[in-house]
Write a structure and sequence with these properties.
By secondary structure, this protein is an alpha+beta fold. It is built from eleven helices and nine strands. The mean pLDDT is 91. Bound molecules: phenylalanine.
């Protein structure tokens, strides 16, 4: 028995010397001290010896046990230290390596100009309202006095989800929502995304942005509309432009007008850009139709108002000389970077 114990001690010491990882060390511990470990099994055998021999055997066994345990502990500390050293070496920070450059995003050109437009209106005491892009057909068409047979209602022009719900074709339903939820005086703009079934080309996209405006108060006339349009268009395009109102038709305004500005390329003489017209169409506007006021529970004998809607993409394209609307939605960094 004593010889057996010594043999185990020798084997253990030899094996221990060759152990180089904490994982191996744990396996080693189990091999000797585990439930079926070599030492555990030997210790169990002591009880089968003569009683007179047992104390001596027990003493030797315990000494060897303590000795191996101690060696395991020492080896463990050593291995842990080595592991830390290794880690420190592999994770060493080289402070001379040049830093990684962080790409800082910039505002999208549509956002830059929209912020500018919002600011102009906020300074004139307008509020900024929002409405859903998925809209009731009623709010997009019916409340806005759109005849049942109006071409814009057509399936070929509008994305319907079902008969009663569609992707809004204009930001005008936000007028309706605002009139239904607020009392006059109302002075608001509602910028947002709109959807129409257009084929994509350099100047058309099925998704684009409008900024709608609405003013409702007592005694609002066409003069207020003209004055407001003049102020904001001059702020956007420069003090030198002239403005022209052309009669037009919108179901929700009467009278209605399309508003042109003198071509900012040629100053109105006529050039390739304005197709020799000297004028560029810029927005739709008009006096809110009494039917719309009635639909929105506003007394049209007391209140009147004007509304206008402008296309954001067009303004941004003019401002920066962008000749293809698709560039706005392609997320090409080379394009977007130019607006930092
Ligand atoms: N909603 C109209 C359009 O999409 C624009 C508009 C708005 C015209 C408000 C008049 C008044 O074409």
């Amino acid at each position: 028995m004593q010889n057996e114990l010594k043999l185990i001690k020798n084997v253990a010491e030899n094996e221990l010397e060759n152990i180089s990882t904490l994982f191996e060390l744990e396996n080693f511990r189990i091999k000797f001290f585990g439930k079926n470990g070599k030492l555990t099994l030997i210790l169990k055998k002591i009880s089968s010896y003569e009683e007179s021999e047992r104390p001596q055997l027990g003493k030797v066994a315990n000494l060897i046990k303590a000795d191996i345990r101690k060696k395991i502990e020492e080896h463990k500390i050593e291995l842990e230290k080595k592991e830390i050293d290794k880690k420190m070496l592999s994770e060493k920070i080289d402070i001379t390596i040049p830093g990684k450059r962080k790409l800082i995003a910039s505002k999208h050109p549509l956002t830059i100009i929209l912020d500018e437009i919002k600011n102009i209106f906020l300074n004139m005491n307008f509020s900024v309202e929002e409405g859903p892009e998925i809209e009731y057909t009623e709010y997009n068409f019916d409340f806005l006095n759109t005849p049942k047979n109006h071409p814009s209602r057509d399936l070929t022009d509008t994305f319907y989800i079902d008969k009663n719900i569609l992707l809004r074709t204009q930001t005008s339903p936000v007028q309706v929502r605002t009139m239904l939820s607020q009392k006059p005086p109302i002075k608001m703009i509602s910028p947002g995304r709109v959807f129409r079934r257009d084929e994509v080309d350099a100047s058309h996209s099925p998704v684009f942005h409008q900024v709608e405006g609405l003013v409702i108060d007592k005694g609002i006339t066409m003069a207020n509309l003209k004055y407001t349009m003049e102020i904001i268009l001059k702020k956007i395009y420069g003090e030198n432009i002239k403005i022209r109102f052309r009669p037009h038709y919108f179901p929700f305004t009467e009278p209605s007008a399309e508003v042109d500005i003198t071509c900012f390329k040629c100053g109105g003489i006529g050039c390739r850009f304005c197709k020799d017209e000297g004028w560029i169409e810029i927005l739709g506007a008009g006096m809110v139709h009494p039917n719309v006021l009635k639909n929105c529970k506003i007394d049209y004998n007391v209140y009147s108002g004007f509304a206008f809607g402008l296309g954001l993409e067009r303004i941004v394209m003019f401002r920066y000389g962008i000749d293809d609307i698709r560039l706005f939605y392609e997320n090409d960094i080379k394009f977007l970077e130019q607006f930092k």
